[in-house]
Write a structure and sequence with these properties.
398 residues, alpha/beta, globular, binds pyridoxal-5'-phosphate
Length: 398
């Protein structure tokens, strides 16, 4: 039963590029195609546009432009931050700290370093997905060189106490990296106020193009170059720059940042309405993550007696794009490591669905989800042997 309706509720996976962003990019693919490293006029136009974008990115996180390095996206920024600082500081020590709920771009990078002989400590989170601060302090040793904790989680939306973690790291003179891919322009961020040394961001999570991102590197932070080749990005990240992408990212971050003060309350209102309605209209459901310390657009619910994957397929038939725990774990049978880290049993983690709202999301979209969801859940539950067992047992108990 396909419909023409399309309700996109997967903004944590990616966002549509703004029209203004695309229009700003086109000239740098057409007439202003020069290589920014060259010396003639069309090259210096490209170079100038790139430096403007660098300043735009810097402005939003309160850094200086010289501390922004362009990369191919969030994954590269995370890899560079972690591998680059781990190796640059390995004479000081080889102990690294991270959390149990990071994006795979971070966790798999740490697995790689573990194979290379680095020692890791994973800091646990509480049942609402907030990192335990005293566990960080307890884990730090004289060998520790890096702490990496995300600013906001991509699956359950929890916002971490970045400023408090930054203060601990600053006091102990340890580098602090935060994966802020979900946070940039969705919540306020300030690298000075938060004592962040390395920060990853990605344009396609704030209505910019895919394949472009940045790493903020605080001045004097010891970090190795990541790509070796030409002298681009002050010799730290070689390779001809993705000029159109960089221009698009600058435009996207500026517009999204300007809209943030209106967008945050709008999304929170829609988010909380959706959570309330799901809880009221479908039995045996609960919210994953913290009720308030969560991204404005994130709704992650566990719905007992169903498979998240099946529900996502049925939603798709109704024209609703949603996700199970995380786009990255979709396609595998392993439940999300984030949902397990907040203490969900395997079955519950499998029965989770994530709706992430964005700028185009309207109250009508939310009402449509609320209208179709209970029927879909019921369809799946009727087929579930676990559910019929549960119903029989509850009948006996009355
Ligand atoms: C999307 C995402 C990434 C990866 O960014 P890409 O630009 O897609 O490589 C990393 N971390 C988090 C938290 C993300 O949400």
């Amino acid at each position: 039963m396909n419909t023409d309706k399309m309700v996109y509720m997967d903004h944590a996976a990616t966002t549509p590029a703004r029209t203004e962003v695309i229009e700003a990019m086109v000239p740098y693919l057409k007439e202003r195609y020069g290589n920014p490293s060259s010396l003639y006029a069309i090259a210096s136009e490209a170079k100038q546009a790139m430096e403007n974008a660098r300043a735009e990115v810097a402005h939003v996180i309160n850094s200086s432009a010289g501390e922004i390095y362009f990369t191919s996206g969030g994954t590269e920024s995370d890899n560079w931050a972690i591998i680059g600082s781990a190796y640059a500081n390995r004479k000081k020590g080889t102990h690294l700290i991270t959390s149990g709920i990071e994006h795979h771009a971070v966790t798999h990078t740490f697995h790689y370093l573990h194979d290379k002989g680095f020692k890791l400590t994973y800091i646990p989170v509480d049942n609402e997905g907030i990192i335990k601060l005293d566990a960080i302090e307890d884990a730090i040793t004289p060998e520790t060189t890096l702490v990496s904790v995300m600013a906001a989680n991509n699956e359950i939306g929890t916002i971490q106490p970045v400023k408090e973690i930054g203060a601990i790291c600053r006091e102990k003179e340890i580098i602090f990296h935060t994966d802020a891919v979900q946070a940039v322009t969705h919540i306020p961020l300030d690298v000075e106020d938060m004592n962040v040394d390395l920060l990853s961001l990605s344009a396609h999570k704030f209505y910019g193009p895919k394949g472009i991102g940045a790493l903020y590197i605080r001045k004097k932070t010891r970090i190795d170059s990541f790509h070796h080749g030409g002298g681009q990005e002050t010799r730290k990240r070689a390779g001809t720059e993705n000029v159109a992408g960089i221009v698009g990212m600058g435009k996207a971050i500026t517009i999204s940042h300007e809209k943030m003060p209106l967008e945050i309350p709008k999304e929170i209102k829609l988010r909380d309405y959706l959570i309330r309605e799901i809880k009221q209209n479908i039995s045996h459901t609960r919210l994953n993550g913290h009720p308030q310390k969560r991204l404005p657009g994130n709704v992650n619910m566990s719905i007992d007696f169903i498979e998240g994957e099946s529900l996502v397929l049925l939603l798709d038939h109704k024209g609703i794009a949603a996700s199970t725990g995380s786009a990255c774990s979709s396609g595998t049978l392993e439940p999300s490591h984030v949902l397990l880290a907040i203490g969900l049993p395997h079955e519950t983690a499998h029965g989770s669905v994530r709706f992430t709202l964005g700028e185009e999301t309207t109250m009508d979209d939310i009402r449509y989800v609320v209208e179709v969801l209970p029927g879909l859940v019921e369809r799946l539950r009727i087929m579930s042997p676990v559910y019929s067992d549960f119903c029989k047992r509850s009948e006996k108990n009355v």
